[in-house]
Amino acid sequence: MTKLRKLSVSGFRGARFALPLDFTNKSRSLAIFGENAAGKSTITDALEWFLTDRVGHLWREDCKQEALRHVLIAEGDDSTVAVEFIGDSLAGEKRLSSALKTSTDLANDNTRSIVEALQDDRIILRQADIVAFLDQQKGAKRKAIADIIGYEEINKFRDAIQGTLNALKRESAYTGAKSHSVTLEGDMVRDVGQIVPDRQAFLTIAQNIAAPFKIGTEITDQATFAEAVKELNALGNSEEKIKKAQRLDQLVKACNALAAEITTFVPDAEAFVTSYNALAKERESVNQLRLSDFLGKGHAVIESEDYVDDACPFCLSAYKLGLLQGEVAKRIEDMSEIQERLENAKAQKDAVLQAILSIGMQAKAIGETYPDLTGFDDLMAATTTARKLLRAAHQGITAAFDGLSVYEAPDGFEDDIARLQHCCETGAAKAEEEAGKLGLSEQEQKVATALSSLRMLESQVRDYERAQRVIDAYEAQILTLDAIFERFVTVQNAALQSVLDTISADVGKFYAKLHPDESVDNVRLTMVGEEGVEFQYAFHGHEVQPPRKYLSESHLNSLGVVLFLANARIFNKQAKFLVLDDIVTSFDTSHRRRLLRLLRDEFSDWQIIILTHESVWFEIIKKEMAQHGWKFHEVRADGPNGIVLDDSPASLKEIIAQKKGKDDVTNDLRKLLESVLKEICASLEVKVVFRFNEWNEKRMADELISQLRSALGDKSPDLKKHAVFSDLAGSALVANLVSHDNTDKIVGEDIDVLLEDIEKLAALFTCAECDRYISAKIEVPGEKTISCKCGKTRIPWT
Amino acid sequence: MAIEKIQSASEVLDTFMGEQAQDESLDQATIAVIAGLRADDKLTRTNLLRKLDEARKAALKDGDRQREGKS
What we know:
Distance between the termini of chain A: 50 Å
Strand content of chain A: 5-15%
Oligomer: heterodimer
Shape of chain B: elongated
Number of strands of chain B: 0
Shape of chain A: elongated
Helix content of chain A: 55-70%
Strand order of the largest sheet of chain A: 7-11-12-3-13-14
Distance between the termini of chain B: 68 Å
Radius of gyration of chain B: 17 Å
Number of helices of chain B: 3
Largest sheet of chain B: none
């Protein structure tokens, strides 16, 4: 796995000039302090951009490449981020030109594959990421978790199946075929008293229709049907007249059917437009329906017996509970009325659209089947005009309803539909009149009617079969996708829960390390509802979720942090380094220390980079982690020069080493001695005189040495005689000390002598193995000694 | 840590699709379309809708051809 050796940033974000970070060949961990707006996040952004070609928090705000270049970088200069990984020649540089062109130069294929693998790992955690994750709803958490653990493909698969399934169910070819099929069934029942599902059934009915005419052919298949039609046509004196009469009869039926449908359609359409437009004018109220789930759940909460606070449970503002209950109930009632109206309008809309499609298809059939008949020009023209307007009306209604805007019918729509109806009525009368003029005998009339029925039914059956085939084709796919989706949700949840169980082991363990002895335990991630993911935990022994229910901001923050750490440890395949950018804002001091101990104990072989704007936290990190080889830097904004990076000494010894020969280090030496003595006294439980508050901290070295020696006199007399005590007591640092404002300077070799003495003192009570002080709490059984934590260093203690 | 027990997303999907391909109650043309798009890393709603449209048209054409053959 990979760690960082060097990172260098220039002309990028806040860094105008080179900002080099050297993690050394040991890929040391690093803490960086910088005041707010000092530009420390430049380092995180640079690393993210180098690895992923983007900076998430900037890209989300639509601030892209132009936001990466330092504002004062020269026009011809590139912004650069160079990274060197631990390993043999594993390095690369990414550049962003003034034309915002990105180029990447990686040393070799090994580097390329490492960078590619790092792109799949979670490396950077920012405070905003934690807040965003915790605020997500359960479904979104599932997606986020799936992304984190590399289950994006599962999300993608699920979304593709579900999206396709929903789209297929709505496709107009499918819904149109279904509605056409229903219409045809109605027509067939009306005409022949039954649904004729296929060609074979049609042939049986055709035989029944032809039978009274006693023709020689029995209809059993397509060939005998054609023969029978010929024979029927030949029964009269004029085959042509019969054919024409048959067509005119069909036209009469078609015109009457269309006119009847328009008669029903017009008032239905008017009713829809009136009720829908009234709703569209109350758009704000309809939009409020989005809140109905929220209000419903909120109502359940404030109506429950457990909720007795005079405050809104959502915003926590003070509010009389009775008043709140009444107002929420009223809003829910108002919403249910709007919801009902919206549902009615939707049903009306679907029916109107259905009717428009049906009228359009009938008009099309008339226009395309009878254009050759003379005397029907008005009818033909009316079908053409009406179809155009019907199409426009269909589109207009769909768009208006989707956008919840007021619907206006196309210009001339009502007049043209009325004209079409009128033309159908006059066309039917005209066709009847034309048929009468043919002078058919009674027998010929019966033949014409029978043939007309056969043609009509044949056409209906053909259309019906076609519609059924379309429906079948869709439903085979829809049923399959439906089944797949349902099964996949189960598989997805099981797979995700197995991963969650694995992560949860670490999440629970890490959380317990951050919050020991608290009432929260068994913290884990679990599937909830059909497809959600949520943190669950036991609070005073009771299972609870979601986390916001009882956890404080700091505890919520902990959840986000431990999830990130657990995920990194389990799922990061390449990165063995993590960047924690200002993530402990809401932690108190003790939890910050615990976080450091968690990192120390569980991530000792990881490279950690912590950025913070809090000096107290930075000092805690120094104190806790300097002994584990961490490096420390401070960044500051230097006006137009951009970010400047300084080393930050981790200990007083380092400060003294830096200042030696240049500045007075007397005070630093004093502080160092006091600090070492305080640690020893605390560890050995040396008793000192009680003092209030800060006065307790202001104890001076002479008092601490004296009390330490006194305690050693009782417990470990030989140690009391150690020369280092007399050396220190007699040193200029202690002997001349009368107050913290002592002005006598310690210079030259005296500094080294004193440092040596302080080290000797510390070494007497510190273990070289575990680097911990010997503690009065750790008594070695069977021996009159006490030891350090690892037990390898002991001192006599009676 | 039992990391090895965790199936990757691809493994989960491979197993799942393999099981669906054995299920005769499902439309295997649809299963084949999904599997094909997955193999090409092109499984999106739009692509799937297009491929299913093609599959329906092909099925309808086959049906028409068979009916014509019979008549």
